[in-house]
C-alpha cells in the first residue's frame, strides 16, 4: 500500500530513493475494522490520516440530536485535522470507518519533528492539503448553489462508486435531503436519458 505514497513523493518532491525509503520506513500504516471510531466528537485528536484503502465517514450530532454526515473520505484522500484555532482543541465531528480500512496514521505530536527531519515531506503534505482544501471549497460553493437533484448528479459524476459504498440514509444526510427524497430523485435520474460524461 505504501506504493501510493511513493508515487506522491516521486511526483511532488525531489527526494532521492534513499530519502524516500527512509520516510516510508518511518510512516505508520494501520488496518482498522469496519465500525471503528477514529475520533469522537468532543474528543481531542491525536492523529491525522491518509486513506490507502476503505471509506471513512465524517459526521456530527447537531443541537437537534440529528446525526449529520459532512464528508466521506476514500482512497488517496487525506483526513486533516483543522482545530488549532480552538482553545480546547476538541473535534467538532466524529470519524468512523464505514469499511475495513488501511490508513497511514500520522501522530500529531511527532508531526513537527518529522517535518523538521524531512523538509520536503512538509512541502508535499502542504501541497496535498491545499489541493484537497481547494477542491472542498469548490464543491461546497457548488453544493450551496445547487438543488438536491443537481447535488446527486454531481456526486454520480465525480464519485460514482460512493453511491454503492455508503448507507443510503448517510448519503441522503450528506446531500442535505431525506432518504425518501433521495430515493425519488434516484428513480427520476434513472429514467432520464444518460448525459454525456455520466
UniProtKB/TrEMBL annotation:
List the SUPFAM superfamilies hit by this protein, alphabetically: cAMP-binding domain-like (SSF51206)
A Pfam family matched in the record:
cNMP_binding
User: Where is the Cyclic nucleotide-binding domain positioned along the sequence?
Assistant: 11-57
Alphabetically sorted, this entry's keywords are:
Activator
Which Gene3D superfamilies did the record assign? Jelly Rolls (2.60.120.10)
Q: Which SMART domains match?
A: cNMP
For this entry, the protein name equals Cyclic nucleotide-binding protein
What organism does the UniProt record list as the source?
A: Paenibacillus helianthi
